[in-house]
Amino acid sequence: MATTVTPVRIGILGASGYTGADLVRMLLRHPAAEIRALTAERQAGKPMAEVFPHLQHYTLPDLVKIEQVNWDQLDVVFCALPHGTTQEIVAGIPNGIKVVDLSADFRLTDPHSYAEWYGHEHRAVELQKEVAYGLTELNRQGVRKARVVANPGCYPTSSLLPLAPLLLDEMIEPGGIVIDAKSGVSGAGRDAKQQNLFTEVSEGFNAYGVGYHRHMPEIEQELRLAAGRPVTVSFTPHLVPMNRGMMSTIYVRMAEGVNADDLRETLKKKYEGEAFVGVTAPGIAPATRHVRGSNHALIGVFADRTPRGAIIVSVIDNLVKGASGQAIQNMNVMLGLGETTGIDQAPMFP
Question: How many CB atoms neighbour CB 198 within 10 A?
């Protein structure tokens, strides 16, 4: 006898960007998902297949403007809108609809910190108090109870998955953490920008946001919760000439009497039984090609030559575990569905 799946009616705000397209790609194979609304301000009125020809084989609603969305037809909304544009929109969504926001607008719990780093006042302060930070493996209970979830940034996801458990268990020192991170060009978005032109990004890679990047306060906010004290990290992102993928190489100082094998065992114990986070065997360095197109994260731990030093390599697909895949993972948890539903595809290799 076939099992009846209760449909989940879904809207995606900002469906014409890379994260919106990946949401559609994965939701198409989600047995409960019914995509009812797709929005895109500049592309409104067009079929989704005209904006993304790789989706032409699927029946999807045409793109519309946000004000044309019929909220009564939706159970869940994914917001894949630009940073700084989401707070007022989410605050106006009816209370009966669950929301996963992929922008940075609700990630920082302190409105003053948000204003400092994003250049304008927080426009939904009361709603912010109800939002759960959606790094699923580290805040599953919070996500389960929330109506609005702030999906983490890609760099924070790759950094926090290894660092937060190690700080919580006092395996590493809170001071002196260095995060050297690299992202594929899709992390910069789909808009036409000079710095994203092929001739600007090919045959080399570059640092950006050096010394001041908006993911810094998000990383430090969550590390402070794990460590129980303020944590300041040295974080430098780089743009690498590949479409998708992210690698964070993290340098830490271990606590007295701790070695790299202890760090590895701590992480293996923390993520034992988790569907999407794995720890490589000794000597195996994770690579972005090991997680491409999947919701997986891989973490490797190595001894450094410096006294009590260790090197952690953490990789994700920036568009999947770093964005759309984790957003669907959070939706599954919020609705009480199987957490891996629709996002259990294996990595694409080679």
Answer: 9
